[in-house]
């Protein structure tokens, strides 16, 4: 019981419930190891007793918790509940972000949103300090229901791409979808900086940094200085563009996979040439302002990039001093590599500028929401963020998922988790800065595995995922910071809340205006007759869609091809006949339901295009605020972009968007697709009465 009490004080679970009525104990060795990652010694009974006594003594002596949350409009007048335990006669002082102060009695109802500083002084002379997060009650939401497109940007090549989709393509997609399709948003995969290597991990969900974008997404020709390259440098630049065209044609015409590494080799050299063109006075002033605003975080990221070029992406063999971003050795290396550090700073600035251009295009095209960016659940353990913010991450731990009905072995994602104690002690500074960076050019932010704001499954290094445990975070603080930063950016928030969700999580997210994610095939009356959920019973605060990047396309689902694919790759856990039969029953039930609603011709035979249109017609009939069209669905693509459970067996994250015949389609061909226009016209018509008159760009509702 002593160990359980100690673990509870630090948010470490000693048991968990994979399903209602079932409790699974966590191995004691796991609890001890996880506590050790939080600098709590529990290796012996004596150590447990000493650590427990120290924790309880510290809690009793502490006047204030590290972070205090105040929700505007939530608290009754008077002192917020978290401060109710202060000794009688204590005085308080709040220093606002801008520097002004308010002393006892603090006007709690009139405090502006922000991250302020709270000081307390007890009658016995004790003092305490805390970060004070004052947050609006909810995040902004779209003023009216809208539809939009979901796409993995790398997969969408235009005739101008250098072998993979880029930010120029995103700008064009947003402009076209807004003006021609009536779309209110375009949602893309995470554009976070990747860890370089040979080969680079192509997954956008295991990045080097979530704070900074990847320059591989740059449209080189859109860099203003590109036009001023002359002489021999111009000839080399043109030759690089020619080789990029060969990469593009290989993907689009010869069946080759997207090769991120090959693309980056060409782009990096081209950008090195362009970097020799001096910036004009206005551009230089803008760059200097960006560098000043980004501060130490940008310097650290650029330094890490330069160090990787010299020493490789694996940090283990780096010279010892370089493991610490604040060491004298790192300072010397930064000076020695000053040219490369400057180059990588410049790349971040360029990428930020093209992200801004895509966002402007979306708003100028009339999109009510705009570009929806995606926040991955974590970062690579050897990446830039883990290096620069090492104290904020738990060493020797990895985020994953416990065993469930779909994966008896559990999951280990290879991503170090935030330390909840470090976040709280810093006033959630790393988390705040991350959100601000992502929300700079976002109309909305999708948060992968949004349940991680509440708890994460930690897996100690060397142990299987089955021997992990949950570690709890201060969800109130995590949500308050999220709502505050989204409010400042005027952006909506979407949570990916699929799979096992702890009771109460969806209610807490809904209360704060965070939209969930509802996928048609999973929406059944699970507690009743288990039949398809009627459209009017769907939740309002969600993005309704037919599939995601981790699931089969709608054409593959309707045809059953996804079952055959998983069979060929050895991923089925039951006989093929059983899987096919169950899948066919599921599809048949949904099609019968769509016919019963009048969304599909009851007398016609099987017609894949008509069935896909019926699926999305159904989604538009739900009260969902946002309806997302998986762009491959619009042209009949049958291949998943990612097949969970595979690595080398399937080309995850490397497939171009293709039509029903498997032939890759350019953005230009996509824009002319009759199949796409037939689908999108129905969605636009279905939402016309709700969407028009259109709110002016930037408008938001509550």
TrEMBL record:
One of its GO terms (molecular function) is 4-alpha-glucanotransferase activity. One of its GO terms (biological process) is carbohydrate metabolic process. SUPFAM superfamilies: (Trans)glycosidases (SSF51445). The keyword Cytoplasm does not apply. It holds the Pfam family Glyco_hydro_77. It is an enzyme of class 2 (transferase). Keywords: Carbohydrate metabolism, Glycosyltransferase, Transferase. The keyword Nucleus does not apply. It catalyses: Transfers a segment of a (1->4)-alpha-D-glucan to a new position in an acceptor, which may be glucose or a (1->4)-alpha-D-glucan. InterPro entries: GH, Glyco_hydro_77. Its EC number is 2.4.1.25. PANTHER family: 4-ALPHA-GLUCANOTRANSFERASE DPE1, CHLOROPLASTIC/AMYLOPLASTIC, 4-ALPHA-GLUCANOTRANSFERASE DPE1, CHLOROPLASTIC_AMYLOPLASTIC. Belongs to the disproportionating enzyme family. This is 4-alpha-glucanotransferase. It comes from Streptomyces kanasensis.
């Amino acid at each position: 019981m002593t160990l359980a009490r100690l673990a509870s004080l630090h948010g470490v679970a000693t048991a968990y419930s994979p399903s209602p009525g079932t409790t699974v104990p966590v191995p004691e060795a796991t609890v001890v190891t996880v506590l050790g990652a939080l600098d709590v010694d529990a290796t012996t009974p004596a150590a447990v007793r000493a650590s427990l006594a120290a924790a309880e003594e510290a809690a009793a002596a502490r006047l204030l918790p590290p972070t205090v949350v105040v929700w505007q409009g939530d608290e009754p007048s008077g002192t917020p509940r978290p401060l109710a335990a202060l000794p009688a006669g204590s005085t308080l002082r709040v220093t606002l972000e801008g520097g002004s102060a308010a002393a006892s009695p603090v006007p709690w109802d009139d405090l502006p949103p922000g991250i302020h500083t709270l000081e307390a002084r007890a009658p016995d002379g004790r003092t305490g300090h805390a970060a004070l997060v004052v947050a609006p009650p909810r995040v902004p939401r779209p003023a009216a229901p809208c539809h939009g497109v979901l796409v993995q940007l790398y997969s969408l090549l235009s005739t101008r791409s250098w072998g993979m989709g880029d930010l120029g393509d995103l700008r064009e997609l947003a402009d076209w979808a807004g003006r021609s399709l009536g779309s209110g948003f375009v949602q893309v995969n995470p554009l976070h900086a990747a860890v370089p290597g040979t080969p680079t991990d192509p997954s956008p969900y295991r990045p080097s940094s979530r704070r900074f974008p990847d320059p591989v997404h740059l449209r080189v020709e859109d860099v203003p200085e590109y036009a001023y390259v002359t002489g021999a440098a111009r000839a080399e630049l043109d030759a690089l563009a020619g080789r990029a065209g060969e990469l593009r044609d290989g993907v689009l015409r010869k069946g080759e996979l997207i090769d991120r590494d090959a693309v980056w080799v060409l782009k990096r050299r081209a950008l090195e040439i362009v970097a020799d063109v001096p910036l004009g006075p206005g551009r230089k002033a803008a760059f200097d302002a960006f560098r000043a605003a980004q501060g130490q975080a940008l310097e650290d990221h650029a330094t890490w990039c330069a160090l990787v070029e010299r020493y490789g992406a694996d940090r283990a063999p780096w010279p010892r001093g370089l493991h610490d971003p604040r060491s004298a050795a790192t300072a010397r290396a930064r000076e020695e590599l000053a040219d490369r550090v400057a180059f990588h700073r410049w790349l971040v600035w360029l990428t930020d500028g093209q992200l801004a251009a895509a966002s402007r295009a979306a708003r100028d095209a009339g999109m009510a929401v705009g570009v929806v960016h995606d926040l991955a659940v974590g970062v690579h353990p050897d990446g830039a963020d883990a290096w620069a913010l090492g104290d904020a991450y738990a060493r020797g731990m990895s985020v994953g998922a416990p065993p469930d009905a779909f994966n008896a072995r559990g999951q280990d994602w290879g991503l170090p988790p935030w330390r909840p104690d470090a976040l709280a002690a810093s006033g959630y500074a790393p988390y705040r800065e991350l959100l601000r960076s992502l929300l700079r050019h976002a109309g909305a932010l999708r948060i992968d595995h949004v349940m991680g704001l509440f708890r994460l499954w930690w897996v100690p290094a060397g142990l299987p995922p089955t021997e992990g445990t949950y570690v709890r975070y201060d969800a109130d603080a995590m949500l308050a910071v999220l709502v505050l930063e989204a409010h400042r950016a005027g952006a909506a928030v979407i949570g990916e809340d699929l799979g096992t969700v702890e009771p109460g999580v969806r209610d807490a997210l809904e209360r704060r205006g965070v939209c969930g994610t509802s996928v048609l095939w999973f929406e059944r009356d699970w507690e009743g007759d288990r039949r398809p959920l009627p459209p009017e019973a769907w939740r309002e605060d969600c993005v309704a869609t037919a599939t995601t990047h981790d699931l089969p396309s709608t054409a593959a689902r309707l045809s059953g091809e996804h079952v055959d694919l998983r069979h060929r790759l050895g991923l089925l856990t039951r006989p093929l006949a059983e899987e096919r039969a169950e899948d066919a029953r599921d599809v048949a039930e949904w099609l019968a339901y769509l016919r019963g609603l009048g969304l599909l011709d009851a007398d016609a035979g099987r017609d894949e295009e008509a069935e896909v249109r019926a699926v999305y017609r159904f989604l538009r009939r739900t009260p969902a605020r946002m309806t997302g069209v998986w762009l491959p669905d619009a042209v009949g693509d049958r291949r998943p972009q990612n097949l969970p459970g595979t690595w080398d067996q399937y080309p995850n994250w490397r497939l171009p968007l293709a039509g029903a015949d498997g032939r890759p389609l350019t953005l230009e061909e996509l824009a002319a697709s009759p199949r796409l226009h037939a689908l999108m016209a129905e969605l636009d018509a279905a939402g016309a009465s709700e969407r028009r008159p259109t709110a002016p760009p930037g408008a938001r509702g509550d």
